[in-house]
Amino acid sequence: MTEEFVGKVAAIVIREGIDGTELLVFDHPLEDGGISVQLPAGTIEPNEAPELAVVRELLEEAGVPGQIIALAGVRDEEWEGEKRRRWVYLLSAPDWLLDEWPSTCDCGTPTRCHWVPFEVAELMGEIARAWVQSSD
Fold this sequence. Notes:
By secondary structure, the chain is α+β, with helices and mostly antiparallel strands. The protein has one domain: Nucleoside Triphosphate Pyrophosphohydrolase (Alpha-Beta Complex). It has 2 helices and 8 strands; from the N terminus they run E-E-E-E-H-E-E-E-E-H. Strands 1, 2, 3, 4, 5, 6, 7 and 8 form an 8-stranded mixed β-sheet that branches. A hairpin with a 2-residue loop joins strand 1 and strand 2. The protein is globular and about 45 Å long.
């Protein structure tokens, strides 16, 4: 018997900025007035390949056409009792992208897309991992 997972994807889009490597993120408003800084990511639709899903999600959430460079990894995770398998891809994006632009998430919420220094992204990841470990 095979275990069922919900398929998820995440897009890592980097560029070389004036001050070094930068990562594409978007600010998603929260109901409490806060902001969640996120990578473009989402759920794989039925009969959709992960490679197609990650390109679709990047376009839906950031308005950015992307091209896959490589599969960064696949990870099994659990969130609120749901078992997930997440494919993470490294993608390239057009050179004409601005430093910041408004978009609308696929859920209909207005968002702000922008680039953060890669060091900030690494720190965000460390904070998130520490939070998850403290919640276990």
